[in-house]
Write a structure and sequence with these properties.
The protein has 115 residues and is an alpha+beta fold. It is built from two helices and nine strands. It has a single domain, classed as Sandwich (Hypothetical Protein Aq_1857, Chain: A). The strands form two sheets. The chain has a six-stranded mixed β-sheet with strand order 4-5-2-3-9-8. A three-stranded mixed β-sheet has the order 1-6-7.
């Protein structure tokens, strides 16, 4: 069986931020991106550093080799997402631009799924 595929983009700045997360975690592996209930808009982004993907994960590899793991149950809500990194006086961290969101919160970390 072939691995699931999906459209996902990681900006250079976000990739650098994620690679630093991987380095500081002390683990080799990839970036796991999922969604869970919560946040001010109903669903929030959840991420962690994992040694390897789960059997049903989509694995997206960037041009420079960063691996992003997306659980099967989250793939439809995250297909087409763009991961950026904000670095300002008010916020430093990852932000997400999701075409599957009907609306997003101001901080960019939670969303309401489109119907």
């Amino acid at each position: 069986m072939s691995a699931p595929t999906m459209n996902l983009k990681v900006s250079r700045k976000a990739e650098k931020f994620i690679r630093r997360m991987i380095t500081f975690s002390g683990k080799a592996g990839g970036f796991r991106l999922a969604v869970k209930e919560g946040g001010c808009s109903g669903m929030s982004y959840d991420f962690s550093i994992e040694a390897e993907p789960a059997a049903t994960d989509a694995v997206v590899t960037t041009e420079t080799g960063l691996q992003v793991f997306v659980p099967a149950e989250c793939q439809a809500m995250l297909d087409g997402i763009v991961i950026e990194c904000e670095d300002s006086l008010m916020n430093t961290g990852l932000t997400f631009f999701n075409p599957n969101a009907a609306k997003s919160c101001g901080c960019g970390t939670s969303f309401t799924p489109a119907a």
